[in-house]
Amino acid sequence: AVRNFYDNHTETCLSINTPIEPPVNTSLFSLFPNPAQQELMINGPAEATEDWTIEVFDVRGRAVLPRQALATFPHRVDLDNLPDGLYILRVNGQNTNWSERFVIKR
Question: What's the N-to-C CA distance of the chain in angstroms?
Fold first, then answer.
């Protein structure tokens, strides 16, 4: 006979309160081309509202390009020293964190 596991158990509800972050307007940034070959372009707001930096990570989470400050958009990222593969570009600011996957394929 099959017995229901919950027959002799009391259900417990766990409530967790977490702070809710305001949503980030992801349309502030875009990158192209994707897939990329030699360079990647990042588009962002016409007027700088905060100081941003970018970082590029491989799929294992290792930083593969040194952190760069973004002064103006569009911003060019040189990919010549990176092998083909999948990467993550992250834009960081005081109030903005945005990331996007991209591929290098030559």
Answer: 61
Side chain identity, residue 71? A
Q: Chain centroid to CA 60: how far?
A: 14
Cβ–Cβ < 8 Å for 76, 44: no
Q: What is the pLDDT along the chain (106 residues), one digit of tens a residue?
A: 555 544 555 555 545 555 555 444 456 899 999 999 999 999 988 776 788 899 999 999 999 998 999 878 889 999 999 999 999 999 998 888 899 999 999 9
Using alpha carbons, select from 98, 81, 104 the residue that is nearest to residue 24: 98
Predicted TM-score of the model (pTM)? 0.72
Distances (CA, A) of 90 to 19, 43, 75: 23, 13, 13
The CA dihedral of 100, 58, 70, 30, to the nearest 10 degrees, is -20
Q: Rounded to 5 degrees, what are φ and ψ at 68? A: -125, 140
- Residue 31's CB is within 10 A of a number of other CB atoms, namely 21
